[in-house]
From TrEMBL:
Domain of life: Bacteria
Record-level GO BP terms: histidyl-tRNA aminoacylation
Catalytic EC class: ligase
Binding site for L-histidine: 80-82, 111, 125, 129, 256, 260-261
Species this chain originates from: Candidatus Protoclostridium stercorigallinarum
Protein name: Histidine--tRNA ligase
Subunit structure and binding partners: Homodimer.
Length: 417
């Protein structure tokens, strides 16, 4: 037997309904927010991710699925959706459409990580990216989109944590302060942090090593280093959130693991999923489009981890509904299979889901199978029924029967479903 690769999962027929349910709700919310779907390829040139996410981040330095294709190009399976969408925005001159432009996607993403509950090597994200958006009203709109998306899935007890990581200018001063602080602790920190200290000291704040984490807790806080414009942006967003009624808390520990963020960063977190508690993360990235060759463009976006959202939905008892079959046509003897299939075919054309026996099993086995398919009704077809054109429709939930003509089955069933 050949097994599934480590860190990947099949979505089995018995589980796909949950995904479809969640995806349907999310597409519904996206439409309410005037967001349009964008689809980009599963792989991109490696350079795109190195340049945008940053080569000192965990994602780029440790987690990417990178390979050389037969043409000698370095290709990477997308580890996230923001950079590919930004690439497409620049390449297709989407700025010539009226701005702001709101996009969304449901994608698979790939990261070489240690698999555990809520952490896979192929996982899925629902994400949104808004372009041409420098005003804090768009930060609010984006956070509110994320909030409504989580609510549409029926999720509860998720806290919004907010921070600002400023712009390149305030970050320069902040990074100096960080270096000053970490200089005294370097010998207690991990090798990666010591290496990153000189090149990208901000990354020392999201090291997962417990020792480094403890030291990072005492580090200076970026909110104290914001320039006037970044401070005003942050304050305005806080006051907008206050009046919107979306509860939040300021958490200076939120820096996000990707380099492209500027100003607003946020996470929606739960206590109910253990270490993998971040269900959704996002923020503003005003320098990204320019860094990959476009015009300076204010942008804000988020990505929700679908597996984590679904795990939480299950934990919180969300009702996903169930796949059901409207009618199962029971064949009294194997020779009648052709007649039963003709009836089923008419039912399907009339918009009623239907199936019948094709393997010659006993009536008892067919009733059992109909139950397993969650059929609402069963119709038994024998010689008498075919001759008279009259059948009995049996409701499987309580056994109640009703008589009607073969050609009326679809209408009768539709009345009751
Ligand atoms: P974490 O800190 O848990 O590694 P992250 O900061 O790397 O998350 P992002 O890059 O912000 O994650 O991705 C957005 C969301 O995608 C996360 O909040 C999470 O829900 C989900 N996600 C990220 N990596 C994985 C993974 N390997 N498996 C499953 N879901 C993931
Ligand atoms: Mg990660």
């Amino acid at each position: 037997m050949i097994n599934i690769p480590k860190g990947t999962k099949d979505v089995l027929p018995s589980e796909s309904r949950k995904w479809q349910y969640a995806e349907g709700k999310l597409r519904g919310v996206a439409a309410l927010y005037n967001a349009h779907e964008i689809r980009t390829p599963t792989f991109e040139h490696t350079e795109l991710f190195v340049r945008s996410i940053g080569d000192e981040t965990d994602v780029v330095s440790k987690e990417m699925y990178t390979f050389e294709d037969k043409g000698g190009r370095s290709i990477t399976l997308r580890p996230e959706g923001t950079a590919p969408v930004a690439r497409s925005y620049v390449e297709n001159s989407l700025d010539s459409m009226s701005l702001p432009l709101k996009t969304y996607y449901i994608i698979s993403a790939f990261r070489y990580e240690r698999p555990q509950a809520g952490r896979l090597r192929e996982f899925h994200q629902f994400g949104a990216e808004v372009y041409g958006a420098t005003s804090p009203y768009l930060d609010l709109d984006c956070i509110s989109f994320a909030y409504d998306a989580l609510r549409a899935l029926g999720l509860k007890n998720i806290r919004l944590k907010l921070n600002s990581i400023g712009c390149a200018e305030c970050r320069k001063k902040y990074v100096d302060a960080l270096r000053g602080y970490f200089a005294g602790h370097l010998d207690e920190m991990c090798a990666t942090c010591r290496e990153r200290y000189g090149r990208n000291a901000l990354r020392l704040l999201d090291c997962k090593n417990p020792e480094c984490k403890k030291i990072a807790e005492g580090a200076p806080v970026i909110l104290d280093y914001l320039c006037d414009d970044c401070r005003a942006h942050h304050d305005k967003l806080c006051s907008l959130l206050d009046s919107s009624g979306i509860p939040y808390e300021i958490d200076p520990g939120i820096v996000r693991g990707l380099d492209y963020y500027t100003r607003t960063v946020f996470e929606f977190v739960t206590e109910e999923l253990g270490a993998q508690g971040t269900v959704l993360g996002g923020g503003r990235y005003d320098d990204l489009v320019e860094s990959i060759g476009g015009k300076p463009t204010g942008c804000v976006g988020f990505a929700m981890g679908m597996e984590r959202a679904l795990m939480l939905m299950e934990k919180q008892g969300v009702d996903f509904g169930e796949d059901r079959l409207d009618v199962f046509v029971i064949s009294q003897s194997p020779e009648l299979a052709g007649d039963c299939m003709a009836i089923v075919s008419d039912l399907r054309r009339a918009g009623v889901s239907a199936d019948t026996e094709m393997t010659g099993r006993s009536m008892k086995a067919q009733f059992k199978y109909a139950d397993k398919q969650r059929a609402r009704f069963a119709v038994v077809i024998g010689g008498n029924e075919l001759e008279s054109g009259r059948v009995k429709i049996k409701r499987l939930s309580d056994g109640k029967e009703e008589e009607c003509g073969i050609s009326e089955i679809a209408a009768r069933v539709k009345e009751t479903i």
